[in-house]
Design a protein that fits this description.
This protein is an all-alpha fold and 259 residues long. The chain has one domain. Helices cover 75% and strands 0% of the residues. Helix 4 crosses helix 10 and helix 7 runs antiparallel to helix 9. 45% of the residues are buried.
Length: 259
């Protein structure tokens, strides 16, 4: 079976969402000049700060995904309300600068995880299963293209392929052991891979919030872009997965690459 014309249009939308320029381009359009200027203003300790904030954020996201995601029947995702909540947490980062990142990022990432789960459920994912829940967390690794990317390694399907074994091992661990051991090697490997990719996007957000005159209002706007970016990633990812359940991964990938 082949995808219908309407489904091909859905896949075209998913590809546009998943392969569009990354967060830095969107923030640059908001602040009026390239985000690279923000990187020039960052202190040398940024890498350590971003890694610490990203690690805590991913741990919070995993905890939300494994323990508290709502399993109701599919409903329309409440994207706007999640943007408002993320914007409020971003105001903290804008007002207090980089030191607030370690506190603010886990909060905004938890809000994002709720939003991504809403999107997943609306596309027919069963959030009672470990695989669907871990797929929500994996969306944080689908940050879109960044400045230093190797195009051969960062396309949507390439990113999924690079993480496939880690996701599979983590799902198998959860199916066998449940939530008794969140420090299991299978889960730690998955978290490390997600955090490594997520931290690249977090660096772009941190660079923007370090710019002069950004302030609380600018921080809220940047966080709204931050969650909007990952809502797009989630919508594209779970739209692809819905079509894969109907036609199989190989057929959907062939159609995606032909678009």
């Amino acid at each position: 079976m082949s995808l219908s014309p309407a489904e091909l249009e859905e896949l075209r939308l998913a590809k546009r969402l998943l392969e569009h320029p990354g967060l830095a381009v969107r923030i640059g359009a908001l602040v009026g000049f390239p985000i690279e200027r923000g990187f020039d203003m960052l202190p040398g300790k940024l890498g350590r700060l971003v890694n610490e904030a990203s690690r805590k954020a991913i741990e919070a996201a995993l905890d939300v995904a494994l323990r508290t995601l709502d399993q109701r029947k599919p409903v329309a995702p409440a994207n706007l309300w999640h943007k408002v909540a993320a914007g409020a947490s971003g105001a903290l980062g804008g007002a207090f600068g980089l030191p607030a990142l370690v506190v603010e990022l886990p909060v905004s990432t938890t809000i994002m995880m709720r939003s991504i789960a809403d999107i997943a459920r609306s596309e027919g994912e069963d959030l009672a299963t470990p695989e669907a829940r871990l797929q929500c967390v994996q969306v944080l690794a689908l940050g879109g293209p960044t400045k230093g990317d190797d195009a051969a390694e960062t396309g949507y399907f390439a990113t999924r392929a690079a993480m496939a074994k880690a996701v599979s091992d983590a799902v198998a661990h959860l199916a066998k052991k449940g939530l008794t051991d969140k420090g299991a090697p299978a889960l730690l490997r998955l978290l490390a891979q997600i955090a490594a990719r997520f931290s690249l996007v977090v660096s772009e957000k941190a660079a923007a919030q370090s710019l002069p005159l950004v302030g609380a209002c600018g921080g809220a706007l940047i966080n709204a872009l931050f969650i909007d970016h990952f809502q797009d990633m989630g919508r594209g990812h779970f739209l692809v997965r819905r079509l894969e359940r109907l036609y199989g991964p190989a057929e959907v990938r062939r159609a995606y690459e032909r678009l």
